[in-house]
Amino acid sequence: xxxxxxxxRILIIKHGAFGDLMQAEGVLHDIRQHxxxxxxxxxxTPGFVGLMQRCPHIDQVLVDHxxxxxxxxxxxxxxxxxxxxxWDTVIDLQNSTRTSLYRHTxxxxxxxxxxxxxxxPFTGLRGQQHLLQEAGIDASHALQPNLSWMAANVDGLLxxxxxxxxxxxxxxxxxxxxxxxxxxxxxxxAAALQQEGRACISVLGPDENELxxxxxxxxxxxxxxxxxxxxxxxxxxxxxxxxxxxxxxxCLGRPGLALFGASTSPxxxxxxxxxxxxxxxxxxxxxxxxxxxxxxxxxxxx
Length: 302
Fold this sequence. Notes:
Rossmann fold, elongated
């Protein structure tokens, strides 16, 4: 009598960054649908473990501290953990020098699905879509990530701050390493919205406390990713920079705008999705509030 076949064990590698990982949600969805009985584990960096443990497409999240390649004891420890799990298949969504090394050393016995050659795709997300298609995996969700599972119930928080719907969320920050991505006129945009009778709130990150006093509207600070997603999910529209919260809003299907200067490419960001668009100018300091308002009005409820 034949024993039932053990479900396949699949390791998916996606280290980050945050926006790239959120964009990959649809790719993870497609992998889960193609392997409904498999044990799917995600190998990612420590900062994303708590977040991705809630992802409905993943059974297990493993930590990769991405030790320097000359730190042999750390690499040996990672090898022992990965080898003991006996992965049947590895799906490499990172496609980096590091994961290439893993393929030829730490995970050389597993079947490997990854982009091994050919010209680089225009965006990482398009590359992942192509990777799935080349592997015979239906990629119908790849370009349509859905982060609704990430959104916490925030009714109590909104009531605590006297916030009623419909409201517009303004996210003036970005990575502290890239201040050039920040449009400087969010307080003036908040004032313009309020003059038109539009309720708005500002969401500030942990390194943006100094901005709170500039806003004559409710300010929410110190939100975790799940609470932030809940606030964004209920927003009538979202305006942000090239930042993590803009990626979340786009992947939640919210109307909105992401503002870009000349330093980065809105096309490569893959932020434009449905009613969420990008607006690029040569200089963010020269982008007037009136221009943003004109672009935003069509997205707001009458």
